[in-house]
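PROTOCOL LOG
Step 1. Enter all chains and additional molecules of the complex.
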Amino acid sequence: SQELEQSPQSLIVQEGKNLTINCTSSKTLYGLYWYKQKYGEGLIFLMMLQKGGEEKSHEKITAKLDEKKQQSSLHITASQPSHAGIYLCGADALWDSWGKLQFGAGTQVVVTP
Amino acid sequence: DSGVTQTPKHLITATGQRVTLRCSPRSGDLSVYWYQQSLDQGLQFLIQYYNGEERAKGNILERFSAQQFPDLHSELNLSSLELGDSALYFCASSDGGGKGYTFGSGTRLTVV
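Step 2. Run joint prediction.
Step 3. Record the structure below.
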C-alpha cells in the first residue's frame, strides 16, 4: 500500500510568519488532498490537486503538486491563530483498490502570538 | 455542515459490548468510507461501500462489520469492544469517481 510521509511532524510558528508542510508519497500520486483538523474534531477539506505542477490557492494557503517528485507542499503565508491545527495530506490509492484515501500521519501547527 | 451526517457524536460503552455507528452520506454520493482515528495509529481506512456493495477493505478487525443500505446510509458495527477500540470514527462520502471526499464530524467512541 502507499505510504505518505509528512514533514515536519509538528511546528511552532510566530503569528505573521510563513510556514510550509511537505507530503511525500512512496508511489505515484493520482490525486492529493489536503485537510485541516482541529484536535478531536472533523476534517475540513482545503484543496485537491490532480495534475502535475498544479497549484491552488485559497486565502493565505497555497498547495502545489510535484508529480515527478511524488510530493506536495502546503504553504501558509502570514500565519494567523486560525491556522493552528493538524494538517493531513491524503492520496487516492487507485492502484490498490478503487478510490480510497490513505493519509499521512499529520502535521501539528501551533501559532504563537 | 459538510453534508455527511454521523450519529451519535459521542458514545461511551463498556468492554465486551456492541455498538452501531451511523452515517448518512452527502446527497448524491454513492460511496461511503469508514475511518478510525486513534492517537497512536493516525487516520486508518477501514472499509468502503459503493451503492450497497463492499468495494474495499482496509485494516478492519473481524469484530467490526459494516453495511450500506438501499437509501445509501451506512452503519458500522463494532462488537466485543476492547479498550483499544476507543477512537474517533469518521465516515466520508464521495461520488465514487475519486474526485473528492467529504467527511462527517465523527463519532467519538470511549470504551471503559
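Step 4. Note key features.
The longest strand of chain B covers residues 42-50.
The interface with chain A takes residues 2, 31, 33, 42-43, 45, 48, 50, 55-56, 58, 88, 90, 92, 94, 96-106, 108 of chain B (CB under 8 Å).
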